[in-house]
Write a structure and sequence with these properties.
The protein is mainly β and about 800 residues long. The protein has a domain of about 260 residues: lipopolysaccharide transport protein A fold. The chain is built from 8 helices and 47 strands. It has a 30-stranded antiparallel beta sheet that branches. Strands 1, 4, 5, 6, 7, 8, 9, 10, 11, 12, 13, 14 and 15 form a 13-stranded antiparallel beta sheet that branches. It is elongated, with a radius of gyration of 36 Å. The protein starts with a strand and ends with a helix.
Length: about 800
């Protein structure tokens, strides 16, 4: 057994001055894996059969992939040389070696060549030092083990490899596998045309196991150019088994992170528009902007063209402009169908935390979103926002200035009646919202006692405009300005706290000229200004006890319990506001948090008159690991005077109490969660209840059950509702699982949303088949049906629509899905 070290400065048994290392197989295989986005099939290839020997069966019978690619055991010649090894040199080991001291070297019999941990083995290697030409023959195996730097692990087998001069090379019958992405491929011929240009002919690629190749991609040829970072595949065909599914005559794809023009991976599906085929083409116009054009062919409509233009500026931010156009839709009265969406975000380089934004959305008709969003992923909103604004924040100030309007689509209410102009949202032209906190006064006065004095304020002003053209109401547009400044002085101890608070509220409103004229008012008659002070005291105590509650848990859980009684007093005198317009304010439903707030109004068109005291109690149990096992509270607001200020002279509280409210969040067991909240009326009848139980028996299973019950409550404008929700995600075995979710309106005896699907995953691909029936905001009286199928090829496709929808609808889905993907 002989060993050789080749480099320009070192000599063992012979001296060679190579012009390049003998690691062609490693380098070509590495670049060959760049065809991952696209990659005949040498079923009888000797190299492919030899490569399969490195696919080892896993001991686990539950494994989704029954085997994995394992790199050949390294001989590590450099380790045997110890400190005598020289970086970037290559070392050789063989049963027999010959060198004629001129220009010919031959190694034969179990030849192993290594450089920097990468190895090539063969039956025979012939090398010409002066030209760098080399030939490796017989069971050529190259191995580039995965490491922390590259992360790439490559195994390759070839029958013959030839190195020419000028950095050219040629190999035949080459099979390669990636231990990192669990993929393999084969090329009948592989050529290195230059140091950066590689060409493969008669290519196959798959992420399936070699003994269970359910799909693969064939290509007549693939060119890889590492200078441009692009690859070109010609006559590519996706096959399931040996059945052709999709053909692409020419495909330009990336092999690194650089952007360049070319086709992206096409996709197809079947939905309400029949068969859809999308073929996106990416245009790298400049380093700071690009364009993607996507023609879409429908079996039941004319073709559609979608364009997405993205840009990045040095000083003015980033943005995306998207537009779609479908001419003469024969299923929609031959009307042209259009959509435009624009988003922009800007961050100031001179003023930290100052941002700007712009959004614009437009569709040509009320059915556009539902027609081209088969699964209802966009929820088909009734109002499409259009806004332009700036946002700023620091330790003491948060401010948002915007102008906003909407495109309101023609929709219907829950009872089927059309939405009228009076039901549309107000435009804000413009709106300013500011909240602020003054710095501690000790910065200006030599007294630390003033540090407890907190002064906060709120400002909200806007011009609200809504044109009433259908006669559904008298126009009421105008200006509204609200200001509040508050001073509080919290006194805190380890056993409790007390916080007195004093506030001054001001509300100003004025109709615009159109509204004054429509209502027959003068400017002075249509202008209103109201001042009102508020006084409040908030006090609480903390009682702590070690151990678990009521002996429900083993003492090993330890932890502590905390009981927190609380009492809050609020007084704001009544000020007449019956003539002041209401632009965007609603009254809150009864809840635990609301009973401890200073106002019942959500918005700034009213100043709440409130004289009340609110007793409350909270309880919390935290185990020794810091996990909150139980957190809940109970409160009731006792009215010392009837409230008089409502919305449009209605929705006011009368009587002695608003009713009791509670909240509860518990985790009694490791994989069981219970959440509930609700309220009673002043007569202690049930007003509302929301409850949800979530059970996760293991990481990739999930069960949710929820209920919502609401009675009519005139004081808050609450409408009756009785609804149930449920979802279930559970594996049947290591490859199949069921997914479902439903929302049912029991009061109106109608299904709001339901989805049932089945998901299959194996080592090669994933399949999802699912059906959905749902209602959207545009037409809540009618149901929409969708049946979809998705195929995901492992290593090529990404997250599908089913996962996006379940993530939006089911609490905890993302965690269960990720666990399922990696469980077997």
């Amino acid at each position: 057994m002989r060993r050789f070290c080749f480099n320009d400065f070192a000599m063992t048994h012979a001296i060679f001055q190579p012009t390049k290392p003998l690691t062609l197989g490693i380098r070509l295989a590495f670049f060959g894996m760049g065809l991952l986005p696209i990659v005949s099939f040498g079923a009888d290839s000797q190299s492919l059969r030899q490569l399969a020997e490195h696919y080892h069966t896993k001991p686990s019978t539950d494994a989704r992939c029954h085997g994995e690619w394992v790199s050949p055991k390294s001989t590590t010649l450099t380790q045997s040389l110890g400190d005598n090894g020289i970086a970037n040199s290559f070392y050789a080991q063989a049963d027999y070696g010959y060198y004629d001291n001129q220009d010919y070297a031959e190694l034969s019999g179990n030849v192993i060549i290594e450089q920097n941990g990468q190895q090539v083995s063969a039956d025979k290697v012939v090398y010409h030092p002066s030209t760098g030409q080399a030939l490796a023959e017989g069971n050529v195996l190259f191995n580039n083990p995965s490491d922390d730097k590259t992360g790439a692990g490559i195994i390759g087998v070839a029958q013959k490899m030839y190195y020419g001069d000028n950095q050219t090379a040629h190999a035949e019958d080459v099979a390669f596998a990636s231990t990192t992405i669990k993929a393999h491929g084969h090329a009948q011929q592989l050529q290195q045309l230059s140091d950066s240009h590689y060409q493969m002919n008669d290519v196959m690629f798959s992420t399936c196991p070699p003994n269970e190749r359910k799909w693969h991609i064939d290509a007549d040829s693939i060119d890889l150019n590492t200078d441009t970072g692009r690859g070109i595949a010609k006559n590519s065909t996706l096959k399931i088994g040996n059945t052709p599914i999709f053909y692409l005559p020419y495909f330009n794809f990336p092999i690194d992170d650089r952007r360049s023009s070319g086709f992206l991976l096409p996709n197809a599906g079947i939905g309400s528009n029949g068969l859809e085929i999308h073929t996106p083409y990416y245009m790298n116009l400049a380093p700071h902007y690009d364009l993607t054009l996507t023609p879409t062919i429908f079996s039941s409509k004319n073709p559609m063209l979608t364009g997405e233009f993205r840009y990045l500026t040095k000083n003015y931010g980033t943005g995306t402009l998207t537009g779609s156009y479908l001419p003469s839709d024969r299923k929609y009265g031959n009307e042209d169908r259009k959509r435009v969406s624009y988003r922009h975000l800007w961050s100031s380089q001179k003023i930290p935390r100052l941002k700007g934004y712009a959004n614009y959305h437009y569709v040509s008709d009320k059915d556009y979103l539902s027609d081209f969003d088969t699964l209802g992923l966009e929820n088909n909103p009734l109002n499409l926002p259009r806004n332009l604004g700036f946002h700023y924040y620091n330790d003491y100030l948060t401010a948002d200035f915007r102008a906003e309007t909407f495109q309101t689509l023609d929709g219907t209410n829950n009872d089927g009646t059309p939405i009228t102009d009076k039901d549309k949202p107000y435009s804000r032209l413009p709106q300013l919202a500011v909240s602020y906190t003054l710095p501690k006064l000790s910065r200006f006065y030599d007294s630390t006692r003033l540090d407890n004095l907190h002064i906060q304020g709120t400002h909200h002003s806007a011009y609200f405009k809504k044109s009433i053209k259908d006669g559904s109401d008298t126009e009421k547009s105008g200006v509204r300005m609200y200001n509040q400044i508050s001073a509080s002085y919290p006194l805190e101890k380890s056993w409790g706290y007390i916080t007195p608070k004093l506030s001054l509220n001001h509300l100003y409103a004025s109709y615009d000229e159109d509204s004054l004229s429509a209502r027959g008012l003068t400017e002075s008659e249509g202008t209103y200004s109201v001042f009102a002070p508020s006084v409040g005291i908030d006090a609480g105590l903390f009682f702590e006890k070690q151990g678990s509650p009521f002996g429900l848990y083993d003492d090993s859980l330890g932890g502590y319990q905390l009981i927190m009684p609380r009492l809050k007093y609020t007084y704001t005198p009544h000020k007449d506001q019956t003539k002041i317009p209401n632009f965007d304010t609603a009254i809150s439903a009864v809840s635990y948090e609301q009973l401890l707030s200073d106002s019942w109004f959500l918005g700034y068109d009213r100043i709440q008159d409130l004289h009340a005291i609110t007793p409350a109690i909270g309880y919390r149990y935290v185990d020794k690991n810091g996990l909150t096992r139980f957190d809940g509270g109970l409160a009731e607001q006792i009215l010392l005077q009837d409230t008089k200020v409502g919305i449009d002279n209605s929705q006011v509280f009368t009587g002695k109490s608003t009713g009791m409210a509670w909240k509860l969040s518990a985790q009694p067991q490791e994989r069981l969660w219970v959440d509930t909240a609700g309220a009673f009326t002043s007569d202690y009848d049930l007003n509302s209840v929301i409850a949800q139980i979530r059970y996760q028996p293991n990481e990739h299973s999930l069960f949710n059950v929820g209920v919502i019950e609401r009675k009519e409550h005139k004081a808050t404008g609450q409408l009756p509702l009785s609804a149930y929700t449920a979802s279930a995600i559970f594996p049947i075995n290591n490859r199949w699982r069921l997914l479902s979710q439903a929302q049912y309106d029991h009061k109106n005896s109608r299904l709001l949303d339901a989805l049932v699907g089945v998901n299959y995953e194996d080592c090669c691909y994933g399949v999802s088949i699912y059906a959905r029936r749902y209602r959207n905001d545009l037409d809540p009286t009618n149901t929409h049906n969708a049946i979809m199928a998705e195929i995901r090829l492992n290593g090529i496709s990404t997250k599908g629509k089913l996962n996006s929808l379940m993530s939006d609808k089911v609490l905890g889905y993302d965690h269960a899905h990720n666990a399922w993907q990696h469980a077997y």
